Amino acid sequence: MSAIVASGLTEFLGNAIEPQVQVDAVGQGAIFALMAVGIGLVFGVLRLVNFAYGQLVMAGAFALALASEWDWPVWAGIVLCFAVVLVLSIAMERLVFRPLRTQSPAVMLVATFAVAFLLQSIALLWFGSLGKTAASLAYLNRPVTVADVDIRKITIVAIVVAVISLAALVTLLTRTTVGLQMRAAAMDFRTARLLGVRANRVIGAAVLASGVLAAIVAVMLTVQSPLVTPNYALRETIVVLAGVVLGGMNRLGSATLGGFAIGYGSGLLGGALPTAQSQYLTSLLFGLVILVLLIRPAGLFTRGPLPVERV
Fold it and tell me: Within a 13 Å sphere around the CA of 187, how many CA atoms are in the beta-carbon half?
């Protein structure tokens, strides 16, 4: 028995250090980091976990699929994707988040669940359970060979876009007035409002920035998985939420690191596990998350307890 375990562990470690597996894992980690930032922005300001975030990604993916079906140019499909996601983000903030902002956290949480299932049901009615295929971006999933390693173009794009997006977000948060107000609101919303910070402006900016990131993620996920169905991106959203908790929800940086870590870990396990054991990936991944949280309840990359007060 011990020989079998040792042999399996050796095979796993051998696969894990393969350059191909490492590159794919970093690319997946970059996409999950962007999703974690989008979720963390809204949580930082509203102290609300937006469970409808995955449905924003799904809506953007359907927009890309429709553009492909209509034979639109790639750039036009991407523009449509951003337009759909941003309109839905603004509508969500104006029609749900803003009227319910003074209610209890449970009410807000149930509201995001309701929005998520509403969008999923609308997609099911409009597009059916079989969904649609976004074929126009398929060329980005083709590999290029670098030093005998096949690197998919989308992996390179994901890493570059993630770095640029995170750099732009850091600039927004540290060099602009609305960014500084968002940081102040994330630390202490009541005090920030007493000092003149306009709540609607700050929350609207956070939701809008989160929507931009959701549209970027929608494009990259659609390249990797062109078949878009009503439950598209649902699994990825659940995994990223676990990553945000794993990293630490009380800081945007720690949440981003948690998203990258769980994305990288998911890609690493998916590439390193033998094909016959790949069905155990999700169980193993969430088992590791539970183990880490038992040791570090506040998160891997943060200190102090998780804030629970909502404003």
Answer: 9
Measured distance CA(182)–CA(201) in Å, rounded:
9
Give me the helices (H) in the chain, please. Answer: 2-16, 19-46, 53-69, 74-92, 105-127, 153-175, 177-187, 189-194, 199-224, 234-247, 252-272, 281-295
pTM for the structure as a whole: 0.85
* pLDDT exceeds cutoff 60 at 3: no
The reply to whether 1 falls in a domain is no
Residue 207 within a domain = yes
Indicate which CATH number applies to the domain containing 257: 1.10.3470
- Tell me if 309 is assigned to some domain: no
Position 143 confidence tier, pLDDT thresholds 50, 70, 90? confident
Q: Round to whole Å and give the CA distance between 232 and 218.
A: 10
CA distance 126 to 124: 6
- Going from the C-alpha of 140 to that of each of 135, 219, 234, 247, 301, the distances in angstroms are 10, 11, 23, 30, 33
- In this prediction, residue 309 has a pLDDT band, given cuts at 50, 70 and 90, of very low
The amino acid at residue 147 is: A
Is it the case that residue 6 has pLDDT exceeding 70? no
In whole angstroms, give the CA distance from residue 202 to residue 198.
Answer: 6
- Domain extent, residue 124, equals 8-295
Phi, psi (rounded to 5 degrees) for 33:
-65, -40
Overall domain count for the chain: 1
* H or E, element range at 88: helix 74-92
On whether residue 116 sits in a domain, the answer given is yes
Strand partners, 61: none
